[in-house]
Amino acid sequence: MAGLKKRITNSVQLRLSAVLCIAIFATALVSGGFAFYFALDEAHELQDNTLDQVAWVIKYTPGTDAERNKMGQRLEGDNDAQIFVEYITADGKHTGDSNIAFHLRPPLREGFQDIVTPGGAYRVLVHPLTPQMWVAIGQPTDVRNEIAFDSAVRTLIPFALLLPILLLVTTDLIKKAFRPVIRLADDVHRRDEQDLTPLAEHTVPDEIRPFVNGINKLLRKVDGAMQTQQRFIADAAHELRTPLTALSLQAERLAGSEMSPEAQSRLDALRQGLKRAHHLLEQLLALAREQQTPSGQVRETVAVDAVFRQVIETLLPLAMDKNIDIGVAEPLPANAQIVTDKNTLYTALKNLVENAIRYVPENGQVDLRLTLNGRCAVIEIEDNGPGIDASKRERVFDAFYRLEGTAQPGSGLGLSIVKTCVQRLGGTITLHQAAHFATGLQARITLPVAPG
């Protein structure tokens, strides 16, 4: 109950539906009460008119008193209305064969009267026929009330039928009125962090358009800030590439000169530093390029085996330096093709395999696998290295993050580049414990076979 109350309080749609339903129900209740009261009063008035009409029919029917008495008996035979007729003389004597005696006492008073007899309560109309003869036409009060109540209840049937229909229609109309807002929320929810295009304004109600305008202004500001940051990274990397290349060439030339062992050792350290700096610049450029390219730009039918082969050929020298067995673990499925961006897929797989090679010890193993599962393609890169603790598997995708105690040189950008590439391709990447080795890590990329 508390959860429902909180939900109604926080939801404009539910709150509006609840308030309108309560208002409609209260209005229907008050209107039904008035309708019932007026219908009941009208039914009693019609019953009085019936008694009055019977009196006038008896009065103006030609014939003797005996014939009028027979007419009264015929009226009493109407068991549904239960109308009883009694003839009374001016001195209060009962005449005729009526089964009911109203026990009226002189002086008689013309008009409607509510009387109580040993046989029950009656509504009686007393009407003079002649100066010496009066007629009393009565009907049991409980019969009158039952007939009037049934008639009044029938007036409530339209309310009873229309009220739930009106409540359902009101709730449905409110739900439909909020559909543009729900669609807008779904649109925002489905976007990734790279999609900063403005939200559609023409499909939302006027009351929400200022809010959407504010969001669009914020998106434009964020987009501008991100582009400025990306341009800065790219420009800085480009500006640093030239002097680093020149320093690398100077170091290569210097290595050919005669020098002492100590100088040679320092030169080797300098060359390794320049190599790491050059690798960092290449990764920064790759990350900036992937972040700047909109999602889903270049789509083509890609043979996955060809991408696997290209990655393995590129990284084979690095793997041979550590005597690492690298290859496709299982035969690829027939027609192993997906519609995607080939260059982006290559960049993601190259960085994953390169990371695996760097962290796997000598004589290790790195396997590539592909599984086609319905509308998805699952690519797995698995190694028998030290693996990553489960609590840190999400953190390693952050830029420049490196695990503590890592001896391998690096910048912490490899997995960040992989995640950016996979997101651009509309897929997901997760890290798991190795499934085919005692220790190690399995990187699983799930991609759509065809773009959605």
TrEMBL record:
<dbReference type="InterPro" id="IPR036890">
    <property type="entry name" value="HATPase_C_sf"/>
</dbReference>
<protein>
    <recommendedName>
        <fullName>histidine kinase</fullName>
        <ecNumber>2.7.13.3</ecNumber>
    </recommendedName>
</protein>
<keyword id="KW-0902">Two-component regulatory system</keyword>
<dbReference type="InterPro" id="IPR004358">
    <property type="entry name" value="Sig_transdc_His_kin-like_C"/>
</dbReference>
<dbReference type="Pfam" id="PF00512">
    <property type="entry name" value="HisKA"/>
</dbReference>
<keyword id="KW-0418">Kinase</keyword>
<keyword id="KW-0808">Transferase</keyword>
<keyword id="KW-1133">Transmembrane helix</keyword>
<dbReference type="Pfam" id="PF02518">
    <property type="entry name" value="HATPase_c"/>
</dbReference>
<keyword id="KW-0472">Membrane</keyword>
<dbReference type="InterPro" id="IPR003594">
    <property type="entry name" value="HATPase_dom"/>
</dbReference>
<feature type="domain" description="HAMP">
    <location>
        <begin position="175"/>
        <end position="227"/>
    </location>
</feature>
<feature type="domain" description="Histidine kinase">
    <location>
        <begin position="235"/>
        <end position="451"/>
    </location>
</feature>
<dbReference type="InterPro" id="IPR005467">
    <property type="entry name" value="His_kinase_dom"/>
</dbReference>
<dbReference type="InterPro" id="IPR036097">
    <property type="entry name" value="HisK_dim/P_sf"/>
</dbReference>
<keyword id="KW-0812">Transmembrane</keyword>
<dbReference type="GO" id="GO:0000155">
    <property type="term" value="F:phosphorelay sensor kinase activity"/>
</dbReference>
<dbReference type="InterPro" id="IPR003660">
    <property type="entry name" value="HAMP_dom"/>
</dbReference>
<dbReference type="InterPro" id="IPR003661">
    <property type="entry name" value="HisK_dim/P_dom"/>
</dbReference>
<dbReference type="GO" id="GO:0005886">
    <property type="term" value="C:plasma membrane"/>
</dbReference>
<keyword id="KW-0597">Phosphoprotein</keyword>
<feature type="transmembrane region" description="Helical">
    <location>
        <begin position="12"/>
        <end position="40"/>
    </location>
</feature>
<dbReference type="InterPro" id="IPR050428">
    <property type="entry name" value="TCS_sensor_his_kinase"/>
</dbReference>
